[in-house]
Amino acid sequence: MTAASNVQQQVDWPSANQIHLVAELAEVKEFLRRRAVPGPLQPEPSPAPHTPAAKAVGLADDFFPPPALEALCHAFGLSSFERRVLVLSAGIELDSSFGGLCAAAQGDSARPHPTFSLALAALPEPHWSALSPTGPLRRWRLIEIGSGPALTQSALRMDERVLHYLAGLRILDENLAGLLDLAETVGAADLSPSQAALVEQIVLAWSHPQRARQWPAIQLCGPDPADSRAIASAAASAVGFRLAVVQSDAIPHMPLELEAMLRLLEREAVLGGVVPFLEWDELEAASGADLERSRRATRMIERLNAPAVLWSRERRKLPHREVAIIDVPRSTRAEQSAAWRTALGAVDETESALVEGVTQQFNLSLGAIRAAAAEASHRFNGSISAPAGRKIWETCRARSRARLDGLAWRIEPAAQWEHLILPTAQVQSLRQIASQIRHRSKVYESWGFGARSARGLGISALFAGPSGTGKTMAAEVLAAELRLDLYQIDLASTVSKYIGETEKNHRRIFDAAEESGAILLFDEADALFGKRSEVKDSHDRYANMEVSYLLQRMESYRGLAILTTNMKSALDTAFLRRLRFIVQFPFPDPAQRAEIWRRIFPKETPTDGLDYAKLAKLNIPGGNIRNIALNAAFVAAEAAESIGMSHILTAARAEYGKLERPLTEAEIGGWP
To answer: CB of 518 within 8 A of CB of 484?
Structure first.
């Protein structure tokens, strides 16, 4: 074994970097000694300048990455003189003897610090341009100049971030701590095969910039920012960088502050290999403050001469910077299934059915799958029993709610099949809807229907009928049966007078719902899905565009979307043609009303002498029956009595008064 190989086993990069830095400091100290004590010229210090640390300790040139000082000088194009000025500034921080040498070399005990005047006098190959604000030392803030009577007499100080870099520490510049948050490092094992292929595309784009020192901005377009962030992190790691998420609120307003921040970002790309990641869509909003925040972020990315990654759901352009657009589709069901199996560990036959169930229903990112599995393992002590499997389902539901809860109103379903009083044909239609939701993954994917076309895969239903006939209750029954979340779309919060904003709001709802396959309920849908009108002006054209957009999303949404209306004739015929189910909720006949009365009171409710045949004569639908039953319960509770016909009569008079209808003798004749 050679001496070099012995050293190779004993010295790692940090040690080699330290050896190299100490040698550079020793060289500059020698120049200071010559200045302090003039005399015959001595041989130049050894090792010679620009000698890699690996060679200095007798290792092969390609064994180590270059020392930090070598890499920094190459990246910023420092001259030999600027290099020694940098080492001089570092010496005062790293070697206690530098202070005395600086004072002796300047002939002034009051100046135990390096100055540019000292550098010009003591170091070889001096040039005045090294002090220029446009020179690399000051442009990239490698050194700072303190206050003093003259520029050349002011103290030189190395920037703290640069000092840590030369010492071999990889830390984020504290001046960027409020702007950037380091993302979790993601490896190839954390990605699906399709995502790993996208990582290779990004690395290739960064390897061949179109112009010198100009990298294209990478725009990842996809439905899930978490997936895109993981792909960007893996790509950054593959080229020795780290991903850092930009906090857009911290982007400076003033041009000078923005310029200074850009310099720090570009310097950080060299020192720490940091790649900024910006979630572009999160900046979209109608308010002026958010729009200005979006403009600042766009300006920052356009002017940043360093790698950067942007995420958005749809393709966008940067007017003044090249953008490499990469589409990031959701992981396939097969990839999600594999991620579940890996995250849950050994999966037996029973657990396999659970995996297939959650994979079919929840379209989660791989990171969300790992998090849900980890939560399940923590809560259930690693045992995936049948009850635990049900809890995993509920965990996935809970994790999928985050985005939708801010966009629509979640209804907690309480109704069951026995609460629905409908003709047999309507009940069969509702059960058929539930069946198609359960088996849509098998039909679309395993049986190949989804590969034929992305259109027409949405399971959409129209519940039409008079108010109070059970349309919303039927939606609750389906949600309870399928164990899915039910969200009612609030028209007041989605429809906007600003052009294009309504479509954006609807897009956010559908995109968020895709993750969990939640049931979307468009109540009073005729207000939103009304007939398209003849185009007479721009308002008509944009109104028709909104309806057309909804048509497209309804067709492509693979969950269940339910429309309710009591004005079926007001709906656009294009919607009716695209609806898979149309369920007519009829006004209940006397027999159905009697059955509703029998089931309207909970088992715990005390009743006395109720005549359901007489109650059925009240010519009202189930919604009004429920109101009367509830109000009668309060009347009876106040009187400390069981609910009887007299209490219901009192409540019925109040309900009919609300409806501005008289109670006829045919309805209440013979009541006590």
So the answer is: yes
Q: What's the token pair of residue 369?
A: 């799958």
DSSP letters spanning 358-405:
HHHH----HHHHHHHHHHHHHHTTT---HHHHHHHHHHHHHHHHHHHH
DSSP reduced 3-state for 46: coil
Q: Interior CA angle at 493 toward 488 and 496, to 5°?
A: 130
* Beta bridge pairs of residue 312: 221
* Each residue's pLDDT tens digit, 380-417: 544 455 555 677 888 888 888 877 887 888 999 989 99
DSSP state for residue 467 in the 8-state scheme: T
CB 283 within 8 A of CB 297: yes
Cα 360 to the chain's mean position, in Å?
22
CA distance 249 to 231: 24
Q: What is the pLDDT of residues 84-120, one digit of tens each?
A: 999 999 999 999 999 999 999 988 888 899 999 999 9
Q: Read off the tokens for 578.
A: 């695209």
Which residues does residue 219 pair with via DSSP β-bridges, in sequence order?
Answer: 310, 325
In 3D space, the residue among 526, 423, 399 whose CA is nearest the CA of residue 474 turns out to be 423
Separation between Cα atoms, residue 272 and residue 75, nearest integer Å: 12
Q: Which of 337, 317, 312 is nearest to 327 (CA)?
A: 312
Q: Residue 201: how many CB atoms within 10 A of its CB? A: 14
The residue behind tokens 């209940």 is 588
Contact 271, 165 (CB under 8 A): yes
User: In the chain, what is the greatest distance between 2 CA atoms, to the nearest angstrom?
Assistant: 130
Distance CA 559, CA 485 (A): 11
DSSP H helical ranges for 483-524: 491-494, 501-516
| Distance separating alpha carbons of residues 68 and 83, to the nearest angstrom | 12
Note the residue count of the chain: 672
Give residue 216's pLDDT. Answer: 82
- The 10 Å CB-count burial string (b at 16+, else e) for 220-230 is bbbbbbebbbb
Q: Are 317 and 277 in contact (CB under 8 A)?
A: no
